[in-house]
Structures are given as structure tokens and as C-alpha cells.
Amino acid sequence: MNAKDATRVRTALTGRNLRMPLAALSAVLVLGGCATFSADGGFGPVEQTVKARSGRDVVWAKTDEQREALAARTLELLAQPLSVESAVQVALLNNRGLQAAYYDLGISEADLVQASRLPNPRFSMLRTRRGEDYKIEQALTFNIFSLITMPLAREIELRRFEQAKLGAAFDALRLAADTRRAYFAAVAADETTRYMEQVRQAAEASADLAQRMARAGNFSRLQQAREQSFYADATAQLARARANAVSAREQLARLMGVWGPQLAFRLPERLPDLPKAVGERPDLESLAMQQRLDLQSVRAQLEGLGRNLGLTRTTRFLNALEFGPARVLEGERSEPYKNGYDIAFEIPIFDFGSTRVAKAEAIYMQAVERATETAINARSEVREAYHTYRTQYDLAKHYRDEVVPLRKRISEENQLRYNGMLIGVFELLADARAQISSVASYIDALRDFWIAQSNLEMSLVGRPGGAVAIAPAAAAQAGGEAAGH
What we know:
By secondary structure, the protein is an alpha+beta fold. Helices cover about 70% and strands about 10% of the residues. The protein is built from 13 helices and 4 strands.
């Protein structure tokens, strides 16, 4: 209902004779009952935002047929070795927590439709009797104040609905980022476990040889204990690596929402290669200011609170006004009714509305400070994410180009020296353990780089681990009081 419709209805309600004709009442009911739910429940903008930011599809499954279709597509994706993109797609389609979050749209839209509809009229009746004398009062009243404030009440709920859309898109994009991180962690954990198994095998061979040589009298007890200690440490490291691999895989499984036979998904044997180069990104802060969903939500919330404050000041003296037709019978039951009208409103004797205005002003200034804090933190978060990204790239590149090749060259030289009988088998085995450990460190650095890249992408969407803020309870209450709902 627009302002012109509201004015027309108010005119019909407050005519010269101050009675509500049936035609005017019918018009009010028709105008108030025209609000309906949208066809897609507000999910269309969410789908477009997620597609544009992640390149992946999202579906809000509301029917059994849609859920069966998603289950079939999930099985199709899980049948192949998982790439990071397919893992993200499975999570966006199959994660039940995300599906539950989408229903915030339905809740918010229901509030919007409710705010767009007129409140029900109220019927009251008083009946007394003494002998043949009756007193009957009947009144049908309508909250005119709610009608006057309906456009703004609808605007408040419309803004919350838009924030709910931003929140749903943020939840999906955050799930995508979490899945990327979990995917890289799971692949790295599996790869590290395989290398730790090689370290343990080398340490086991060294410890076994040391034990045989000690029995033959060719090895001291100290040397044997040292090799046995290497083997014990390698066994403990392998156990930790296996436990970490199980935890990382289960974390990925939870994010993808898989269980039962779906847990047999296959991961690649190694992480993606390091990119050849990464470029400078001097525009990251400005991109964050433009693109971050939490900043968009804060701006909308702040604008809405400013409008709420204006309404609170306007309606500070009048917070409730009800008007409607009434009829009264006094005397015998056969006497005719006396027709009239009933009007009720608050009288500002003790409370002149200053408390509501003060509260609204405090809520608005609180939101201003929080919006400023959010913008400052966003700039800092994107700078930190980019610095970590570049550092992890340089570190992984250093391991790839310097540390691992040097360990390999040392191993090759020691192999030649061993063949020439210049060093013993224990030195060769120790060098093999060191080379494998350097490769495991490179795996960790490569994993951290891909995770840092995911964090950088997420920093352009919103605060990692955060959420898009909906109007806080105090602000919502202030808006509700102003609107009379």
C-alpha cells in the first residue's frame, strides 16, 4: 500500500459523520489484504550473488523432488575424485545447515507480508441486565495509527528482508570458503601421512640394523639408543599425522554434509601446484569497501535506523489511536440501538515520548559507531589477509625452489659417497629422513598458501568467521515501537 492509498483510506475512515461506511471498510480490507509472498521467497538475489562470487550453484530445496535431485547430483559429484571446486559444489548443495539458514528468508518475508497487511479490527461488547432493562454496547474499532505508520513499518521489514538475503548469501559464501580450507587441509594431511610413513620406514630400518650391529658388538649402546629414539619419534609423528588426516577428512565431510556410503569420496594424492607468480593488489581495500556484504548490510541498517528516528520524533505524543463504529442499547430489549462511534488514544500526561526519542537516538549513534568500526576492521582484515597470502606464497616458493632441491642434491651426493664407501648406511638413512622431512615441510607451506588464498577471497566477502548483521534487538524494538506494530 502506498501513501496515496493510505491517505484515501484515512479520509474514508474520518468522514464528516465520523462513521465507517461498509464501502470504506471493504476498501481498507482489500488494500490491506493485497500483500502476498514472492514466487522465489527472495532466493533469486541470493543465487545470483553466490554464482557471481563463487561460480557455484546454490539451490533452496523445499520439496522432496528438489531434495532427491540434489542427492542425485551430489552422488554424481562424489563418484569422481574430488577437486576443490566439486567439493565446494557438494557443500553448497548438500549442507543441511545451509539449507536451514535459507529459511531465515521465509521468516523475514513472513514478517514483511505481515507488516504490509492491516491489523485485524477489534470487536468489543458489554451486556448488562436488570429485570427487563438491558444495556448492550457493541463497538468495532480499527487501529488508525497502524494504518498511518504502515508504509514505514513495511519499509522496516523490507530492509530486514534485504538484510536476510545478504545474510543467506554470506552464509553460502562462508561455507564455500570453509570447504576450500578444509579440502586443502585434508589433501595435505593425506600427503603428509604418506611421507611420514616413509620416514618411519627409514627409521625402522635404521633401528633394526643398529640392533643387529649391537648384538654383533659393532655398535655402542648409545648409538643404538639414538637410532631407536629416531624410530620411536617417527612412529609417534606418523600416529599424529594419521589422526590429523582423519580429523581433516571428517571436517571436510561435515561441511559437505555427507554420511554413510557418501564417506567413500576420493581425494587427489597431492595439492595443486604453486602458481608461477602472484601480482600486486593495491585496490583490495577499495574492493572490500564496495563488495563486502557485511558493509552493505551495515549501511542499509544505518539508513533505516535514521528513518526510524525521524518517525519516533514525529509520533512521540501519539502512539495509539483506535476508531470505529459503535452502537448502544439502553432500556428494554425491544428498544432500538443508538448508533455512534468509539475512539481511543493515549493521553500524554506522564510520558511525553522523550524516552522513546532518547532511546532511538542512542540506538542510531550506537549503530554509527559500529558501522565505522566495521569499515575500519574490514580494511585491516583485507590487508592482513593479503600480507599472509604473499608471505605464504614466498615461503612455499622458497621450499620448492631452494630447500627441497638442496636436500635432493645433498641426498644424491651422499648416495655417491655411500657407493664409494665413504659414509655408512646410518648416515645415508639419516639423510633420507631429512630429505623426506623437508618435503613434508613444503607440503605444509603449500597447504598454508592455498588456505591463505581462500582467506583472502573471503576477506572481500565479509569478516572470516563472522556473519552479516541483522538489526539488533534494541534497534528492532525501536522501529517496532515507532511503527506501532
